[in-house]
Amino acid sequence: MTVYRRIRSDGQAGFEVANYASGKRRLESFPDSASALDRANQLARQLSEQEVVAASMTNEQAADFAAAVQTLAPFKLSLPSAASTLADCLKLVGDLPNLHAAAKFYATRHKQAQRKPVAEVVAELLKVKEARGASLRYLGDLRGRLARFAEAFRKNVGDVTTAEVQEWLDSLRLSTQTYANNRRVTYLLFEFAVARGYAVDNPVAAVENVTVRGGEIEIFTPSEVAKLLAAATDDFIPCLALGAFAGLRSAEIGRLEWSDIHFHEGFIVVGASKAKTASRRVVPIASNLAAWLAPYAKFEGLVWTGTHDAFYDAQQRTSAATGVKWKANALRHSYASYRFSLVGDAGRLAGELGNSAAVVHRHYRELVKPADAERWFAVRPDAAGNLIPLPASASA
Hints:
Order of helices and strands: EEEHHHHHHHHHHHEEEHHHHHH
CATH topology of the largest domain: hpI Integrase, Chain A
């Protein structure tokens, strides 16, 4: 080992020792010759021990050494330097699998993503889905749910965190099914963003997932639906009436046009493009439904001109104004229950609902009494205007 005597910038003598332990020459400085000599002797012993180990290496060990040196060559690292760094890392994380996981996590979090606002990613996703032939019903569902998400998150999609998405979903106070639907759609959005390099990971993956279980069928009483209709705004009355007295789903109402309601013939056509099951069906117009819809007989275009979110908000406002608790899908369940009590024909009702007779039997048989059913279909506006006469079969 060589010890060098140097004159420092302050004029005092200093000493340096050349350390080759890492495979490269590195000078270590010491204030006096005794310290420098001690370090030199220490390094000499280490080198001596390494030479003994090297001399006693088997052919297999020598091959491993050569392979390790070759593996490190692209990174311009010596084997001793790499081994020293690896040992330091293992002290922090415990073992190689944890070290590998930590490295992957670091690489993911420091990956550069193209910054793009949530609203722009939503628009791009919808455009791609439309180009790939997604149904109008599916596109409408995506558009409605993601529009609300984009409104809440006016930031780059890559900056959205799991905690923020969880807090947003919780704040909506959704039913279990609606929560699951919104989580599914936002998960899809971030998978799209990751695939296109707008985000490094999907924050929704760690958002709480819920199990949707079939619960008891909830329905409104005749007095409850009368209160809801009395409190509803003019543009929302037809939506409530169509759900309560024709059994249409809210999504179907959102796609329904006034031209689909054949007032004089006494039926509503729910086209395949507007029905959940993608099959056309015809629903009779009950006499009380005709009374509720009569003021709108000359309207054109969509029955509901607002958005999916506005429809939901209208439900909540109407519920709050009356004190009648809103029950999930209760308008449709109510129609099915009261209608089945009157007609007693599962096949006929299944056709009106767009369900199977088995579903009708399982959920709606003997749920209400005929007298309550008669009161349900007797709920009418105080002043219905000029009522449209219906064929006898339409009100049966």
